[in-house]
Design goal:
The complex is a heterodimer of chains A (149) and B (88).
Chain A lengths: L1 E7 L7 H9 L5 E8 L3 E2 L2 E10 L1 H19 L5 E12 L3 E9 L2 H18 L2 E7 L4 E3 L10
Parallel strand pairs in A: 1-5
Antiparallel strand pairs in A: 2-6, 3-4, 4-5, 4-7, 5-6, 7-8
Helix pairs in contact in A: 2-3
Chain B lengths: L1 E5 L12 E5 L6 H15 L4 H9 L1 E4 L2 E3 L10 E5 L6
Parallel strand pairs in B: 1-5
Antiparallel strand pairs in B: 1-2, 3-4, 3-5
Helix pairs in contact in B: 1-2
Classes of the chains: A alpha+beta (149), B alpha+beta (88).
């Protein structure tokens, strides 16, 4: 079972409750919740928020491919995953990404969650513009996208 | 032929419209789009080497698939520029 979404934070919000409702409906013995949040410093600057940009359709496609890769590579038993990423301005402390996973046994959920976030960083077209104290903003450099072969 | 380039990430700074409309008088490949965007950045932001590097390092996509520089574009096609990524 899989759910993914790009959440436009001007219209909706990422919540743990939604992930919990999805994950708890699965017949699994272990579940794990990962939250990415906006931290207050980066590159010796005081961060006040981050604007996330996303190519929505490619992001959703990428999330589905990552889920399918995880099942195949990690040989997961009864996997379920709920992945949402923010698009738009997220203030300090706000949730940028949630990855909730469930499997039959506990060892697999740690691997599963880690696999998803690491692959998102390599393969999912999302960008960050940091906002600092004062009016300054910077698009973070990022890494060239890895193409699935 | 007209090609629309959807802009993302740092490349959104290239236009107020979040896209570029480019005109070509022949059939073109992705590398022609890249070269045209390099020219545009050099003209519009002559001091900004970062923007230039971003275009050089960017991928392009057509119909949600990353395509190579020799990919041949159809008339009136829309493509997206995918600068280096960094979500999470």
């Amino acid at each position: 079972m899989f759910h993914c979404e790009v959440v436009d934070v001007n219209k909706d919000q990422i919540t743990i409750e939604k992930a919990q409702n999805f994950i708890e409906s699965q017949k699994c013995g272990a579940s794990l919740y990962f939250l990415g949040t906006v931290r207050d410093h980066n590159n010796d600057k005081t961060v006040t928020g981050i604007t996330y940009d996303a190519h929505d359709s490619m992001v959703k496609k990428s999330f589905k491919e990552i889920f399918e890769d995880a099942i195949q590579k990690l040989k997961l038993d009864h996997p379920a995953a709920f992945v949402e990423h923010a698009k738009g301005y997220v203030p300090l402390g706000g949730i940028s990404v949630i990855i909730a996973v469930a499997c039959k046994h506990r060892a697999q959920v740690y691997e599963f969650s880690r696999f998803i976030i690491e692959e998102i960083k390599k393969k999912t077209p999302i960008w960050k513009k940091e906002h600092y104290q004062g009016e300054e903003t910077t698009w973070l450099e990022g890494k060239p996208i890895e193409v699935k072969k | 032929m007209k090609i629309k380039v959807e802009l993302f990430g740092v490349c959104r700074e290239f236009s107020d419209n979040n896209f570029l409309d480019l005109e070509f008088d022949k059939n073109i490949q992705i590398k022609d789009i890249r070269n045209e965007m390099i020219k545009l950045v050099k003209d519009k932001f002559p001091e900004n080497n970062n923007y230039l590097e971003m275009v050089k390092k960017s991928a392009f996509s057509s119909k949600d698939e990353i395509v190579e520089d020799d990919f041949i574009l159809s008339k009136n096609e829309t493509v997206s520029i995918i600068p280096p990524i960094g979500g999470g």
